[in-house]
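Project outcomes to date are best conveyed with an example. Our students and postdoctoral researchers have been running inverse folding experiments weekly, and each run begins with a structure described purely in tokens. The record below, which covers 259 residues, was selected by the lab manager from last quarter's runs and is presented without edits.
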């Protein structure tokens, strides 16, 4: 009985020490582009089960996060939808290094149920709808600071529609808000992230079709650790490279970078 008693006591002491050490570490705060919301929350749930580390997520536009980190915002891991923001932060000395590419994203046309628009990835019906009056409002993320909005603008410019559609645009602060506008019935459609359209809660609201990737600059998504990142942030940074995490990302439409 004594060996069993001491074994249980040692196990309990070890568990208490681990719990105390975990609680003593600061919670890692992740600033993540809005297109990641469904995919990264699923990955994070498994990460927390596997490691015991806790994470706090803030979702928004990559450009806004760039400005906030530049001004000293206390984020530990920055997951941008545009790698250029990461490079600029690295050049400003705000990060540990130049980070790593974690995914490529895609954009597409989202047409809500009941819309007069057709789900056409080459935007031919959108062009007709601009001429015949079917299109009243169209949603994209703000191209001034949201990478998915920048790529939407480039695609519309490629199709020769930007000048005609610009007065009808409803701009989301980020791609998640743009997806809400595109599916809520307040617009006839919009250009959103494939990763959001593949989430059941969004996809059931309409039809989604990809826009040719050659129509815009590729959405190269890069992440980077800031200088004061705690161990939990570093652990999650590494965790995103394992096959199980990447499988979740692929399920949400992301393409994984080649090793």
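After processing, the design step wrote out the following sequence:
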């Amino acid at each position: 009985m004594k060996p069993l008693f001491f074994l249980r006591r040692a196990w309990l002491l070890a568990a208490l020490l681990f719990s105390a050490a975990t609680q003593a570490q600061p919670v890692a705060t992740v600033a993540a582009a809005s297109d990641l919301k469904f995919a990264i929350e699923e990955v994070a749930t498994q990460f927390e089960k596997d490691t015991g580390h806790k994470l706090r997520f803030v979702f928004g536009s990559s450009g806004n996060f760039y400005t906030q980190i530049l001004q000293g915002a206390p984020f530990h891991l920055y997951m941008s939808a545009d790698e250029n923001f990461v490079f600029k932060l690295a050049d400003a000395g705000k990060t540990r290094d130049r980070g790593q590419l974690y995914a490529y994203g895609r954009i597409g046309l989202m047409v809500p149920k009941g819309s007069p628009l057709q789900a056409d990835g080459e935007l031919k019906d959108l062009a007709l709808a601009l001429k015949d009056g079917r299109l009243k409002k169209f949603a994209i993320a703000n191209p001034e600071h949201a990478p998915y909005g920048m790529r939407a603008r480039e695609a519309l410019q490629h199709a020769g529609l930007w000048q005609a559609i610009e007065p009808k645009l409803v701009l989301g602060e980020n791609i998640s808000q743009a997806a809400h506008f595109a599916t809520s019935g307040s617009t006839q459609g919009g250009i959103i992230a494939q990763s959001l359209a593949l989430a059941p809660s969004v996809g059931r609201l309409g039809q989604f079709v990809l826009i040719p990737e050659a129509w815009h600059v590729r959405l190269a998504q890069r992440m980077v650790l800031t200088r004061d990142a705690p161990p939990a942030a570093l652990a999650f940074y590494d965790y995103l490279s394992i096959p199980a995490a990447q499988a979740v990302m692929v399920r949400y439409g992301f393409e994984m970078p080649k090793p």
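The longest strand covers residues 219-225. The two ends are 53 Å apart (CA to CA). The training component of this project remains on track.
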